[in-house]
Amino acid sequence: MLSIQNIVKQYAEHRALNGVSMDIKEGSVFGLLGPNGAGKTSLIRIINQITAPDEGEIFFRGEKLNPSHIARIGYLPEERGLYKKMEIGEQVLYLAQLKGMSRQEANRRVKFWFEKLEIQSWWNKKVEDLSKGMQQKVQFVATVLHEPELLILDEPFSGFDPVNADIIKNEFLELNRKGTTIIFSTHRMESVEELCDSIALIHQSQKILEGRVKDIKETYRNNTYKIEYRGRLPLNLLNAQDFTTSAHEETAESGEVTVQIGNGKKANDLLQVLLPLVSIERVQELVPTINDIFIQKVTSH
Prior knowledge:
Shape: elongated
Number of strands: 16
Distance between the termini: 30 Å
CATH class of the largest domain: Alpha Beta
CATH architecture of the largest domain: 3-Layer(aba) Sandwich
Number of helices: 10
Order of helices and strands: EEEHEEEHHHEHEHEEHEEHEEEHEH
CATH topology of the largest domain: Rossmann fold
């Protein structure tokens, strides 16, 4: 869907993007991650042609990105941009027509979405009369109304209560199931785990990680397990056999212990040591979360 090649963006003395490249597959939910100031918003603005790169190119379905692609992209910015004094219905119709839709078609689609999200009664209200979450619901409708092929969501759940956040999440997942490619920029790592197929991590203007979520988590597995047990466990025995525990006592009563397995040994080797000593209640591998990996990568650079 989108091929981003060696993008450089300079603002006076600050280099916001430094040779950033990534490929976003059609039909995927792609997480664009990074700390504040990393360069995510600069890249999003370039994709939306709000600004232009100083170096590098972007290709949209094999074509060099150009103004004709704007109508095929939907953008929900973190900072919303609705006209506060304008009535909701007229405003969404106006925004739809800016994307090239006829007023008749825009009116049909607006009514469909307003009914779907149960906001028909807002038609004659002004934006300033709505809460932040209600305003975001309206802007979400304006963003998807023209049925974009590429949907860019920048912190889409900001300001929503859990119920409405779940409604919006389900709506954009439904769009994805119908073929819409989504770029999802967020600080909420639990959302990344749940929603994204692939991610890229930008830090200090450079891409430092990219790949499928499943593959990245597999790469960062460190052979660590949480063991819940009954009995008296001699921790010193584990530490002497390439099993590093989370506790320091010589023995431990019934409970749980975290064990990292070293020297190429496996979970079965650990269980063979434990089973004659204690009764095993539960074994769980502790696979690093995307949040763990995010912190590790950012703090190591």
